[in-house]
Design a protein that fits this description.
2 copies of one chain form a homodimer. The two termini of chain A are 32 Å apart. In chain A, helix 2 links the parallel strand 2 and strand 3. The first copy, chain A, has 2 domains: 169 residues, Rossmann fold; 88 residues, Pantoate--beta-alanine Ligase, Chain: A,domain 2, CATH 3.30.1300.10. Chain A is α/β, with parallel strands linked by helices. Chains A and B meet through strand 5, helix 6 and helix 7 of A and strand 5, helix 6 and helix 7 of B. Strand 5 of chain A pairs antiparallel with strand 5 of chain B, so a sheet runs across the interface.
Chain lengths: 280, 280
């Protein structure tokens, strides 16, 4: 496993490789969700690259950049175990040198949901992903369905700008009780950890209602809201039933639906989602 | 010479070629300035691609998109004569399909000069150039110094996003009397054509003053303004003496200086520039 810490060195290493290269961009503090992406990437490509970069431009000044969890040693051990060829750990000052001022923005699909609650977040995501794609030049890039809106944004970025790679979306990996894997889960104390299950339970409720024939997004949303409000440690940021492609909010479900939610458990903001009625 | 009209066909043709590929993006209605770029490109690359695309997103609603001059037949003849391998003529609806909404924006250096007078112009330029670079995958791309701010924007775009190509800037090509070549010169009637020379004369005045040791940007600007105001058909949009890299306006010249101006002659807006005190 090559561990590379400069853009120039990564480009040189990348060009030394023929064949397909799969790429898993991460912010580190890896969990089984990340490792599932790496395994899938390994299976589908001649070589696998993983980046670890806690991207400052996707955090707002109010957010948790400074306290975002990091453990490089453990991350590298996990990547070595799962079988990674190239690990890219660029320093922030090389990704954003003094005077950096070029931004990639996907409008429309970023206006609602996470975009509405985290101004500038997706501009930071789209910019760093575009830059990483230019450095890594991957054949395929792997993202988790857990960040549903991010997936839509990156698919649109790649399509609109005709970027030369395939975006592969992988299912959300969950703890045995259903909590979606997230680096932020480490912030939860035992009581909060128990309370955090309310996100999964609300999604399961939506799935059950949908399977029973319910097609009123408004009624499903109301039932989910009610369920979450019964958990005193939970504060709802949003509960959305939206068109999976445009992310426009639905009141009646005709085709598929992306059911997504953001809930604060104490100071920790968690997101989760499920797509219903669409082959994935 | 291959003439290619779809993105998919261009990508296929591009991948069929080994070796270096030089790229000259244009809006067509070619003149000797464009052909100088193509000749330089041919000399420095195994193959040469030219795009002809009148990019709607870099025109504001008030601007001259509809009446922008076009002559595809003549353009193709000129490109064949000068020796072009690939010509790319994408239809606007393929570059900007329904729902297109991803934008590349270079901030800072786009705030002044053309950016201040043409809101959204450089967002359109940066977006289409990024997209064309992804489609063409050039080794080198060629731009004329005539569009000085565009050159700065594209150099910054490529550097900030680590795009995989070299930007080559070529000197402005001029008519025998000094008027910078421009597709928009065709709009000028004979009296306006004569009056348009005032841009070049103002730049020559700046050069003469600088060569004589003048380092007050304010005094040079004032002398240029006075000269242009003596031409009744000319209306000044701006006269700028700026840092060639940051485009920040100068009052004293210490290093080099980009002297640029935009002047309306009747309804036609012309730009020109010269860089003084910098090896180019």
């Amino acid at each position: 496993m090559q561990v590379i810490r400069t853009i120039a060195a990564f480009k040189a290493a990348r060009r030394a490789r023929a064949g397909s290269l799969g790429f898993v961009p991460t912010m580190g503090y890896l969990h089984q969700g990340h490792l599932a992406l790496v395994r899938r990437c390994r299976a589908e490509n001649d070589a696998t690259a993983v980046s670890i970069f806690v991207n400052p431009t996707q955090f707002s000044p109010q957010e948790d950049l400074a306290r975002y969890p990091r453990d490089e040693e453990r991350d590298l051990r996990l990547l070595r175990e799962v079988g990674t060829d190239l690990v890219f750990l660029p320093p922030p000052e090389e990704v954003y040198p003094p005077g950096f001022n070029t931004w990639v923005e996907v409008l429309g699909v970023t206006e609602r949901l996470e975009g509405a609650h985290r101004p500038g977040h997706f501009r930071g995501v789209a910019t760093v992903v575009a830059k990483l794609f230019n450095i890594v030049e991957p054949t395929r890039a792997y993202f988790g369905q857990k960040d549903a809106q991010q997936v839509v944004v990156i698919q649109k970025l790649v399509a609109d700008l005709t970027m030369n790679l395939e975006v592969v979306v992988c299912p959300t990996v969950r703890e045995p009780d259903g909590l979606a894997m997230s680096s932020r889960n480490v912030y939860l104390d035992p009581e909060q950890r128990r309370a955090a299950l309310v996100l999964f339970r609300a999604l399961e409720l939506a799935r059950t209602l949908y399977a029973g024939g319910e097609r009123s997004a408004d009624r499903i949303r109301a039932r989910m809201t009610h369920l979450i409000q019964e958990e005193p440690r939970a504060r709802i940021d949003y509960i959305s039933l939206a068109d999976p492609r445009t992310l426009g909010e639905l009141s009646e479900i005709r085709g598929g639906v992306l059911v997504s939610l953001a809930v604060r458990i104490g100071a920790t903001r968690l997101i989760d989602n499920v797509v219903l009625g669409v082959e994935q």
